[in-house]
Amino acid sequence: MFLSQIERSNPNLIRTAIEFHQTGKIPPSCFMIDLDTVAENTRTVVQAAQENGISLYFITKQVGFNPVFARTVCENGIEKTVAVDWNEALTMLQNNIPLGHVGHLVQIPQKYLSQILSAAPEVITVFSVENAQRVSSAAREQGLQINVLVKIVDHDSFIYSGQEGGILFEDLEKSLGLINALPNIKVAGITSFPCTVFDPEQKEFIPTHNLKTLQKAAVILEKKYGGEPLQVNAPGNSCSNVFPLLSRFGATHAEPGNV
Question: Is 145 within 8 Å of 186 (Cβ atoms)?
């Protein structure tokens, strides 16, 4: 689906892929990644994020959890990855790629929870008080202190099919009280997805209802945990053009997936 864009932005990649395939340097049914461009793009994204006060985790879902790609991104300025499901997290751990954020789109299955917690990711997203209880129990067994992000949804949230889940905004204060009572975990912030979408008519990225809900939720957390650094994680189309918008809404973190 991105062939026309690659033709415009990186035609040498196409020519090289054809040459390597026709000469037998690569087998059929494989992928090629231009690591020089990945490195350059990573540095560009990092600079734009820094200019807008945004911290980054990078995602490897779009490139099949490729560890070579991941190391290149790490070496060029985004030091930790976001693993949207347990499979991605385990692949990153097997290749010594540091975990930043885990469990955003798919909660961690009980079978792998202890293993992933022991890798000390910066934050783990929980969709519910019940899931927070599971994380708390596993963390207590290992003597760990785990930072969690609470995924926020609202009745008017924009959610892709199959990615449902989260604590309703109207239940946030009550849920925070219950989570705070759990041992070995600490609420470190909030998240939602997607926080921006591209509007083809305006030809620019615009905030979703999710981002506006996240902004309101951040006010509640600030009142409850005032003085503590809180993460407002706002992924979705995370790129240089989006960072100024995210900054205006109070986001602190984003998660680029194509660099």
Answer: yes
Residue type, 83: A
Rounded CA-CA distance 216/188 in Å is 16
pLDDT at 170: 96
With helix as H, strand as E and coil as C, how does 204-234 read? EEEECHHHHHHHHHHHHHHHHCCCCCCEEEC
Can you give the pLDDT at residue 108? 93
What does the alpha-carbon distance between residue 221 and residue 245 come to, in Å, rounded to a whole number? Answer: 21
Report angle CA 29, 68, 100 to the nearest 5 degrees: 120
How many CB atoms lie under 10 A from the CB of residue 209?
16
The tokens of 153 are what?
A: 């949804």
Burial category of 234 from C-beta neighbours within 10 Å (exposed 0-12, middle 13-18, buried 19 and up): buried
Taking the chain (259 residues) in runs of 10, the rounded mean pLDDT of each run is: 84 94 92 94 97 97 92 97 92 96 91 95 97 97 97 93 92 96 97 95 95 96 86 96 97 89
H or E element at residue 90: helix 86-94
The pLDDT, as a whole number, for residue 41 is 95
